[in-house]
Specification:
- By secondary structure, the protein is an alpha/beta fold.
- It has one domain: Rossmann fold, CATH 3.40.50.150.
- Helix content is about 35%, strand content about 20%.
- It has 7 helices and 9 strands; from the N terminus they run αββααβαβαββαβαββ.
- The chain has a 7-stranded mixed sheet with strand order 5-4-1-6-7-9-8, sandwiched between helices. The chain has a two-stranded antiparallel ribbon with strand order 2-3.
- Helix 2 packs antiparallel against helix 3.
Amino acid sequence: MPDPVGSTSWHNRHLACFLRLNELLLHEAVVDPVILIVGPGGVTLPAAPLLNDSAVAGASKCRKLLGDVARYTDQALRRIPRMPLRTLEPVEVESTLSMSHRLVVADRSQRVLSAVARDVPHAECHCIDITFQQLPVVADVVIAFNVICRLDDPAAGMATVAGAVRPGGWLLMDDRSADAHLADFGAFTRIAPKIHHRAAEPGD
């Protein structure tokens, strides 16, 4: 079976969420938070410059067209077994958070995890399929952008991800996945775009 290398992403796609997360952690004075990233975004090295260029604010129609071509190209290139990938969210979380923390990354793809290990050497990497395997930690923050909506069994994946958020913690998730599946877990409240807070105690 080919290594599942996920979907195309680009640099700083979720930067606003990570900056807001840093503010929340500082405000709550969370000491040494555990940050768990599930299915980190990535991009092939050849496609990265075009994707970055098309994603900037105010990009022209020509740039956006090039970005569309780059996305299709990236999807084709990442199927080449030895095509190098660049990890995105782990690097961006590391550059955004201003407190010491423990970074744990889980993905189905060993190639994606190899890119994480290269770009963020201290990250703890785990090869896991969340539709039938549990995540290795209960975390203060779980980040799962564009993961649940792409699973064959999204309900099972959502149960795994939601269960990995500690009471009082935060879940960062794309709106498509949250709108379709997070409502089944009543402990979560949306507090900012793509950021959901888990009640500290049942009924809070």
